[in-house]
Amino acid sequence: MAALLKLSGSRLDINKLRHLVAGVVSAPRSERPKDWMTLVAPSPDAALERQLVALEEEIAAGRPVELAARGADRGLRLAALRKELVRQNLNGFLVPRADEFQGEYVPPRADRLAWLTGFTGSAGLALALADRAAVFIDGRYTLQVRDEVDGALYEYRHITDEPADAWLSQHFPTGGRLGYDPWLHTADGLISIREAVERRGGQLVACERNPVDAVWTDQPAPPIAPVVVHPIQYSGREAADKRAAIGAELEKAGIDAAVISQPASIAWLLNVRGADVPRTPLPLGFALAHRDGTVELFMEPLKLAPGLEAHLGNGVSVSPPAEFGRALERLGNEHRRILIDRSSAALWIVEKLKTSGASTVMGEDPCALPKACKNDTELAGMRNAHRRDGVAVTRFLAWLDINAAKGEVDELIAVEKLAQFRRMGELFRDFSFDTISGAGPNGAIVHYRSSPRTNRKLQAGELFLLDSGAQYLDGTTDITRTIAIGTPSPEMRDRFTRVLKGHIALGAAKFPRGTSGSQLDALARRALWEVGLDYDHGTGHGVGSYLAVHEGPHRISKVPNRVALLPGMIVSNEPGYYKTGAYGIRVENLVAVRSEPASEGGLPMLSFETITLAPIDRRLVETKIMTADEIAWLDAYHQRVRESLTPLLDAPTATWLAQATRPVGA
């Protein structure tokens, strides 16, 4: 649709739209603008026609229409995809929000779901059939998907309540062929879909070329950002020691080599960082870790910064990505026993090893657990990073308190102002994700992203939800604060306090070794459950050390997770509550798992150390429904915030912080 947008400007009437569409699709291919050569079907499909009718009705009613926001180009892209499916003899195709590394953040080249549908969330799936299509999202995106994806083109489905396999069982044609890209799915991830297709007498077909790529004519090039050393002063452990330890574990398990398919694991194992994806310092590539401690790294050699090969040493070889398949074939031909991570390895890798003769062991990434358990250097770095980050957030909150009352602040201004304060911080490198800045009803969209079209002013009597974080060389931060603009309603105070009570219950918990995050999740929800409320997202995710802001294998959520919490793990503590069309509430700190002093005859126990340092809005606290212990926890936390940050603040901000952190009963 790029050509149409260039011709149309930001707004146009329905007649001009119809004229442009009809003119382009009816012209000979040789006369069509280059951007339309493969993107446009011979004629607009029914979905696009319905969209045009809807646009016509809005214009007739006197409402101006933003063409780009309505996504007329998405209908043309879907039509082009369907044409390609016919060419490849397919009845449908799976479009996950994934790349070959199965990461949360993907480079622009791999963001196929966003290109096709307009959905920009971090997790999702589209299913395109000849006569219908659907987008599947989780509870974080139930509102966002309706804002970004055209309902005339795609049905909206909650991936848990209305999973893709159930939709296929109802709509997939009998005996049909459903295509998929084997690089974009894990073996486990396709089990239920394969069963649904086979129940319809159909077949799941691995595509040699992704049909989306076939019609995406201006698809970006693969990223080629420099890969640099992550110094020992921040990593705390030599890469050679890590390689030897992983090799010893493989030897102990009788495994010849492990496929390392998660770039974060490669970054941790080799003490390197990159910039191939937004907001996370990852160098994209694959690796084979061998039982003798050596590593084969498959990454574009041009990405290696000067001096990196010397840092890697003789124990690490570097080959272009194209050599990865041949290396897998070699292991297969030698009948090696290979460990593959069941949650992240692409099906293509699994099939390549199996067909080459290797013995595959579906297990866990051997780097995941040691990466999650931060060493003393990493923990110290995380604390330092959060102290500096707390200074930036506190300076912002003080600024907001003055300027929001003037009615001069909107969501985007707030994002940029906080960014300015963070950029001043020592060792700052980037943001750890795109800031969620939700005023009023926008705060109820869990992973909302403000844009010029959705931007809203902060208004008196509303809540403002701000979820943000940063990447520092010594640590990664993630913090959410909910701020009252003007005077909050009694309902807002009640809901906020119940969220805070859950946050305190989890943050103050002591639990036996061997406890998983799933066993603790209910602590954060109890106060909401007491009045029939809940939230539809997890309570906590792991966080990396100058790595991914969302890191496994541990988490805190309703979804069962058998991974026990261990000392050194960092995890978020973020219960929330969201009232559609009104407000959103979330209180998030990061906590580190630590050992508790042993008691005579007692079980080994663990607890949490809160490492995030920033004030919680006292104006939203309803002490009448808090216990004395909860009030004491909040006052103690605020005292620590005040004592830690005051020496680093200018005098006016320090004065503001003293007021913002005074005891809640004062």
How are the secondary structure elements laid out?
Blueprint: H1 2-8, H2 14-26, H3 46-60, H4 67-70, H5 72-87, E1 92-96, H6 112-117, E2 125-129, E3 133-137, H7 144-148, E4 155-158, H8 164-171, E5 177-180, H9 191-199, E6 203-206, H10 211-215, E7 228-229, H11 232-235, H12 239-252, E8 257-260, H13 263-270, E9 272-273, E10 286-290, E11 295-298, H14 308-312, E12 316-319, H15 324-333, E13 337-341, H16 347-356, E14 359-363, H17 368-372, H18 376-403, H19 411-423, E15 428-431, E16 436-439, E17 462-468, E18 470-472, E19 475-476, E20 479-485, H20 490-507, E21 510-512, H21 517-529, E22 540-542, E23 551-556, E24 570-573, E25 576-579, E26 583-586, E27 589-595, E28 605-610, H22 628-645, H23 651-660
Parallel strand pairs: 1-5, 3-4, 5-6, 8-13, 11-12, 13-14
Antiparallel strand pairs: 1-2, 2-3, 7-9, 8-10, 10-11, 15-18, 16-17, 17-20, 18-19, 21-28, 22-23, 24-27, 25-26, 27-28
Helix pairs in contact: 2-3, 3-5, 8-9, 15-16, 18-19, 20-21
Characteristics:
666 residues; alpha+beta; Creatine Amidinohydrolase, Chain A, domain 1; 4 domains; six-stranded mixed sheet; 18% strand; metal-binding; protease
Q: Strand pairing plus helix content: what structural class?
A: alpha+beta
Average pLDDT, to the nearest integer? 90
* Name of the CATH superfamily of the largest domain: Creatinase/methionine aminopeptidase superfamily
Helix content: 25-40%
Beta-strand percentage? 15-25%
Largest sheet: 6 strands, mixed
Shape: globular
